[in-house]
Amino acid sequence: MERMATRAMIKLTLCVGIILTVRGAPQRRDTAKIPLKMPQVSPKVKDTYLCHAIETSQKNPTYITGFEPDANKDIAHHILIYGCTTPGSRDSVWNCGEMSHTTEEYSTAGVCGSGSQIVYAWAMDAPSLTLPKDVGFKVGGDSDIKYLVLQVHYKNVDNFLPPKNEKDSSGVTLLTTSTPMPRSAGVYLLGTGGSIPPKSVEYMETACELREDIVMHPFAFRTHAHTHGEVTAGYRIRDGKWTEIGRMSPHKPQMFYNVTSPGIEVRQGDILAARCTMKNDESRTIQIGATQNDEMCNFYIMYFVDGTRTAVNHNCFTAGPPYYYWDNSPLKHKMNLKDAPQTASLIPDKNVYLKISSPSHPGISQKDVTLDENLQDRRLARLLDYLNNAYGDPDYYPPL
Predict the structure, then answer these.
(1) How many CB atoms are closer than 10 A to CB 32?
(2) pTM over the 0.70 mark
């Protein structure tokens, strides 16, 4: 058994003073800044994903109320922070990307060993993020998040090779408090697999029904794609009515923006849907994957709930084109697709509408897509490999 002493685990410990509550007066909060940064790493292979974990306080919970990124888009392509019950490795740093990108310098493992959920995401020099009043991510103590894992995607490693031989400490400073928050934050991620045919506009779509008896209050959203993403939009569908949660071009700073429908709620039975509109001017097929030559289709929803019960299922992934579209979704009878907003593929600030032009596919329903080890199609096999390793063990797929 590997000894815990072999890894650079940092306890999230706070200096807690006496809290004095006065009726009618604001309560003083004990706050601390916790650094979560790479320990001077030097990746040698492009598109390396590295992970580093810190252990949260096991005695008392801590509440994260803000994030201050310390990274440069020329070094770190993007950063994710995961909450894990157990980390993917006990090493101080490990390779947590696709298994095909193994290196001799770092061992290879998933992001989380168990209990994976996304807490924060950053890319393209996005600024700091402060959560709304009385909202925080509960970690440590009696929460399911016992470890926080920092994942950094190093798209370009030139600075780490001779003659520069530089080291990196990209990461995020966590703004925390020991004072319990009446509202708990969570992140819900919608995404797809699939491919984009050459010289075409493609719609990468996903939709899932919320089956949990909770009320989610989305307050921020974030989009993520690589160079082919033109616009990504997310919606709540209730009784066939579409309400926009957010819409943004991934070419802009990939930060968390305020939702476009303030006060929106998501309840049991509502459908969450997202579309990434992709434009491929190249002569090759672009696949969803973890490298700079691949694409990604992600729509993040940051939300809060009253109390402590956040969503158990944090993800909504579909196989994507040519296997999945809203048109052949098992939920299409509830989605009222004739009223799906045309603005889903309207590039913000440009007023340019991108109509799908990818080759017509026979279209198989999700029930015909077999997501298991006997999968014959390499693209779906690659999707599962990517989700299991780059995103951590995915918690949820729509029913097949």
Answers:
(1) 15
(2) yes
